[in-house]
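#structure-requests
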Amino acid sequence: MTLAQLKYVITIADTGSMNEAAHLLFLSQPSLSAAVRDLEEETGVTIFKRTNRGVIVTPEGKEFLGYARQVSEQYRLLEEKYIEKKNEKKKFSVSMQHYTFAVNAFVRLVRQFGMDEYEFAVHETRTYEVIEDVRDFKSEIGILYLNDFNRKVLTKLFQEYNLEFHELFSCGIFVYMWKGNPLASKDEITLEELAEYPCLAFDQGSSNSFYFAEEVLSTYEYKQLIRANDRATMLNLMVGLNGYTLCSGIICEDLNGSDYCAVPLKSDEEMTIGYLMHKGTTLSMLGRKYLEELKLSFEQ
């Protein structure tokens, strides 16, 4: 197994085409196919399934590529620092579930450092993709929550991907809704009172398991349930249908406006919000500063 072979399979996976990958790699298609075949025989892993419409990554190939990307990214960083000695912009990327407070911390980080010497990226996405982004070094940090229901399953996945979860804070459950909702003025809300209003949940795509839900109480039998893909749609549904979602109670009027509120849910459930990172690695200066901004959001 060589670094060149790892680069080959990563390029093929990214393009979805053996011919296009060969063109980008300045190789002949037969030479590239032979290199991939040798790698598959050596590892005993069938990385790609060949079809008339191109190549498809197999489930075991997807796992292999996750490790390949880690090795390739680490080698690239070593090469840039010690061989090419590039003076590139310092980079920071974070992936998160749909948390306004996490986006707000990112905004404050960018404002603090500017874009002249730094390159930033933020990915507000599905739970499994948050985990994959950190695993594949697409993001240095991943922001998500654990509770008694999903902790065992997600912790096992973290271990498989060589990731570790660090707790930031724990909190009760809140109902997030438009201030025009008839329940918005209450001091506390029960699930029974919410029955006549649609519960809004973020769609998790092909990983739409209860364990990957961004909302707690994911197994509860809601009378009305609407799934959406983004936060802006959620806010529109709160106004248009008096919908609600369950959250940590940390709201950010700077980004979402002042038309929404968080009311405590009458429940003993708790959620622990924290961050994911690779085991055995040290956070960058920007990573540490981002966590400082995140903690400041909690305090405020």
